[in-house]
Amino acid sequence: MNSKVYIILLNYNGWKDTIECLESVLKNDYENYQIIVVDNDSPNNSMEYIINWAEDKQEVIYDEDSQLKHLSQTHIPKPLPYVFYTKEDALNGGDREKESKLNNPIIFIQSGENGGFAAGNNIGIKYALSKDDFEYIWLLNNDTVVESKSLKSLVNYSENNSCDICGTKILNEDGSLNTYGGGFINSFTLRVRANINVDKIPDFISGASFFIGKKAIKEIGLMPEEFFLYFEDAEWTFIAKKHKMKLGMCKDAVITHRESQTTEKSSVLFLYYTTRAKILFSKRFYPLKKYFFYFYLLVKSIVNIANGNIKVSKLIIHLLLAQDKFKSEKWKCYE
Question: What does pTM read for this prediction?
Fold first, then answer.
């Protein structure tokens, strides 16, 4: 069991979480891996902080009430070898000679723009594909910490079960179960239900911890970028299932996830992108049932009007009417 794995972390304004995640990843007990960190043009200079951490100039900063310190302590000795690339340099394959001299450095990539969750991860995936020296990619949310056995368990499970895509056990910060692998989608309302049965394979694998083989990526393509935020993982999984890819869930691979570190679930931003993503998803995978979903959104809009949430109701109606303009729409139009 010596298959190389690229671990891709996407950062947007979350350098504190990213550094803690990196510390936990570096403590894992599987040797053949390489880390890629892609920054989606964070306005808070995240990449500078992360590079300073690699150079031993920035300490790990924990929340005062953190219950997860044990997963990232003791800290890995610094400085750490790394290479910094612009998006253009990374997509051109990077500097192989420099990397070989540094012996498996961390790859830091500045995207130069915030193209969304899928676009940022795809930069890392494209870089890995240009190297073509791996068997698996592990997309890992930057606001997670991992148990040391997780990567070895994922590789072992995927190879023993011939899995193309595999999920992990995901815990909440308080130690309670979030989900096994991913979730189940109600085809009428597109509400997502977490998988709480360890023996079931979910409808889709969670993007917080998405383990996928190189062969699968080459067959189904990159993560779909039209969503910007949310439901990219469901879309990618459903495409894989159409290609008869095998899904799995490795219960021995365990991560803890601090959810909604980028957007608050009660925010208008969250509502906009989740509703937009669900409309796109319903059109692609539930072409007949999508009208039930549209009706559900109309009822939801009426309820919000009754409760005085006019802004929310207008946003939902606008999204239903503006579907043909999704590709050109910008969030600032609805702020």
Answer: 0.93
